């Protein structure tokens, strides 16, 4: 299976880029799934990660070099990014000595947790004394406007889904990689904490006050040249019992010219909500197009991104071909790539 590209750079726009390169902090996690932010950065921003650091006894590693904050700073790191996404999004008291060590070594701290770095007194005092920054990527930027609905110049693609965690971020990143190889002017626009750390900037839509969420999506992808594409990371699903609101705000505010529907093969119910059956792909296409026409009457669906991680290569190939024939559009798994994904990428540009 092909590895993701390691060349996603911060896009120009109104949002201040994050200090890079990163030292990745793994805390004391023992379960790899809780270090998904660190693994995402390793896979998609490897050239901007100088190494990893962790508490004594940590059981998870990204495979990057183990460096102390002092060593990382000497090798060019300018921040330590918390690569953990644990249940509840909390910052463990056991991490505080290592976080203080990073500040003392000259690094800013970047957190993607629900907990705020600045709410932890030892960190707040040390940062003020040392002139370091505590950067919470789930803290929306100031001055987000209410959405105007004004059509912006440039082209936009939004990845949407039948559910959460179906591959919207990886699909967007892989499309940018494919398009840039073709010479297309394209940027990845991040809307979640891992995507923001990969891109170096963005807005965490799930942290924006509801009235301003569509405005945040407008702010995220400003006016651009006629041939420029913003590829916007989708969030949630219009069918999700908890997160439909952020998905709709993103759809209206981003005003996509093109959507790609993302789905996890074999999933039958909404993740974490077993009482809710997953919608069909056709139903997902229809609803996103119907609601998306409110702010962009020319919206279209270019194809489907199918997460086949639970299938072997032969099973995935058969399913991708069958679904493409059934739906009458390109279907591909971005992590498997190949000719199927190239067809999907080309269909988005038509």
List keywords for this structure.
350 residues; alpha/beta; Rossmann fold; six-stranded parallel β-sheet; five-stranded parallel β-sheet; 11 helices; disordered N terminus; DgcN-like_C; DUF1611 domain-containing protein; DgcN-like_N
What profile does the largest beta sheet have? Answer: 6 strands, parallel
> What structural class do helix, strand and pairing data support?
alpha/beta
Total tally of structural domains:
2
Low-pLDDT stretches are 1-10
Domain D-glutamate N-acetyltransferase-like N-terminal: 70-140
Organism: Luteimonas salinisoli
Protein name: DUF1611 domain-containing protein
Pfam families: DUF1611, DUF1611_N
Structure description:
Residues 1-10 have low confidence and may be disordered. It is globular, with a radius of gyration of 20 Å. The chain has helices at residues 36-44, 69-74, 96-105, 121-130, 168-181, 193-199, 213-220, 244-254, 281-292, 313-327, 338-349, and strands at residues 22-25, 49-53, 79-82, 108-111, 134-136, 155-161, 186-189, 229-232, 258-264, 269-270, 273-277, 300-307, 331-332. The strands form three sheets. The chain has a six-stranded parallel β-sheet, sandwiched between helices. Strands 2-1-3-4-5 form a five-stranded parallel β-sheet, sandwiched between helices. The protein has a two-stranded antiparallel ribbon with strand order 10-11. α1 (36-44) runs parallel beside α6 (193-199). It is an alpha/beta fold. The protein folds into two domains: 22-136, NAD(P)-binding Rossmann-like Domain (Rossmann fold), CATH 3.40.50; 155-349, 3-Layer(aba) Sandwich (Rossmann fold), CATH 3.40.50.
